[in-house]
Write a structure and sequence with these properties.
The chain is mainly α. Helix content is about 75%, strand content about 0%.
């Protein structure tokens, strides 16, 4: 189709936008809907476009959540931060509550925290112990790990 035809047909335009988005990385349904609304497409066109990509199985929130969790665990990030990111991406709470624990079982939080402490502690070796501990804790909390798990890992590390 020519560029002129694309400008006239909103569905072709919407599909082009979504294909470009999906070419960069997988997207949640909500991300696609938001982007298409930003492009001033009608609600009907947005719905039809999303349905088209769902039928092609290029948009699947369950698969998106699995991939997102897997990639964020490799970063590594903690469950609190991953949960927050998935909510921001428009993933349903039920999906988050089924997919996140399933993947976390393969990667225990405490082990990940200990690994991060070992990788990061050299940055703070010249600081006094209280300041070093505080900075490590802050770093781990920003990464989305729970405070009780952080404290346990740090106590194990210090002993």
């Amino acid at each position: 189709m020519s560029a002129k035809t694309e400008q006239q047909d909103p569905l072709v335009r919407a599909k082009t936008i979504v294909f470009r988005m999906l070419n960069i990385r997988p997207r949640s349904e909500q991300e696609i809907r938001d982007r298409l609304r930003q492009k001033n497409l009608s609600a009907g066109d947005v719905d039809r476009t999303v349905q088209y990509f769902k039928e092609l199985e290029l948009v699947n929130d369950r698969e998106f959540a699995r991939q997102w969790i897997s990639s964020r665990l490799r970063k590594p990030l903690g469950p609190h931060r991953i949960r927050l990111e998935l909510r921001r991406k428009g993933i349903a709470e039920e999906l988050i509550e089924t997919e996140l624990p399933a993947q976390l079982s393969t990667c225990p939080e405490i082990d990940t925290i200990k690994e991060l402490i070992n990788r990061r502690e050299h940055r703070y070796e010249n600081l006094e112990p209280v300041k070093r501990r505080r900075r490590l804790m802050d770093f781990l909390q920003r990464r989305g790990f729970s405070l009780p798990q952080i404290i346990k890992a740090m106590n194990d590390h210090d002993s």
